[in-house]
């Protein structure tokens, strides 16, 4: 078996591991949305292989790993990936920095959807610290984009 057949799957696994790796409380507040970023890249690059269905399954895995109510992260991930998949041709033409702004807006949408769904189910209050990952995700996007593009080209994934 060739590694190129599993590259997308392995990158999603790495993103899930990075998403749940224990960190100090201050660093945990700044943790980028690794899963959203990786799924976002693969949706922009290969929308026929990574789409809302993959986002739903990965979101369910993320719900299980994080211990949240089943469907919260899955729904939020599906909405964000749907927006990317619906506009992938336009977003591909943007520069990496413009894409970072779009990713930041989607990360904000993702966090607000997760907050609203958790607020409906539990009694959580909104804190501005919920939005710190939006900024770190925007900062990480250009480098993650370049890394995953290099991997995609090196393994000739299409």
Task: Describe it.
This protein has 158 residues and is mainly α. The protein has one domain: Arp2/3 complex 21 kDa subunit ARPC3, CATH 1.10.1760. It contains eight helices and no strands. Helix 3 packs across helix 8. It is globular. The model has no long low-confidence stretch (mean pLDDT 95).
Count helical runs: 8
Q: Which topology does CATH recognise?
A: Arp2/3 complex 21 kDa subunit ARPC3
Secondary-structure element series: HHHHHHHH
**What is the count of structural domains?**
1
Strand content: under 5%
Using the alpha-carbon principal axes, give the shape.
globular
Structural class: mainly alpha
How confident overall, as mean pLDDT? 95
Rg (CA only): 15 Å
How helical, in percent, are the residues?
over 70%
Instruction: Indicate the CATH architecture.
Output: Orthogonal Bundle
The N- and C-terminal alpha carbons lie at a distance of 17 Å
Low-confidence stretches: none
Q: Could you provide a short overview of the structure?
A:
Helices cover about 75% and strands about 0% of the residues.
Any chance you could write out the topology, listing elements then pairs?
Elements: H1 7-20, H2 25-29, H3 34-45, H4 52-66, H5 72-86, H6 88-92, H7 96-121, H8 132-154
Helix pairs in contact: 1-3, 1-4, 3-5, 3-8, 4-5, 5-7, 7-8
């Amino acid at each position: 078996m060739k590694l190129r057949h599993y590259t997308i799957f392995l990158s999603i696994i790495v993103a899930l591991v990075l998403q749940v790796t224990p960190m100090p409380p201050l660093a945990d507040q700044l943790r980028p949305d690794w899963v959203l970023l990786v799924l976002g890249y693969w949706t922009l690059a290969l929308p026929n292989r990574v789409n809302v269905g993959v986002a739903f399954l990965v979101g369910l895995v993320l719900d299980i790993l994080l211990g949240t109510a089943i469907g919260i992260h899955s729904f939020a991930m599906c909405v964000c990936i749907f927006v990317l998949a619906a506009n992938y041709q336009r977003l591909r033409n943007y520069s990496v920095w413009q894409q970072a702004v779009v990713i930041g807006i989607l990360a904000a949408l993702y966090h607000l959807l997760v907050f609203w769904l958790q607020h409906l189910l539990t009694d959580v209050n909104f804190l501005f610290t919920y939005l710190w990952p939006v900024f770190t995700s925007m900062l990480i996007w250009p480098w993650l984009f370049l890394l995953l593009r290099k991997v995609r080209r090196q393994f000739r994934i299409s």
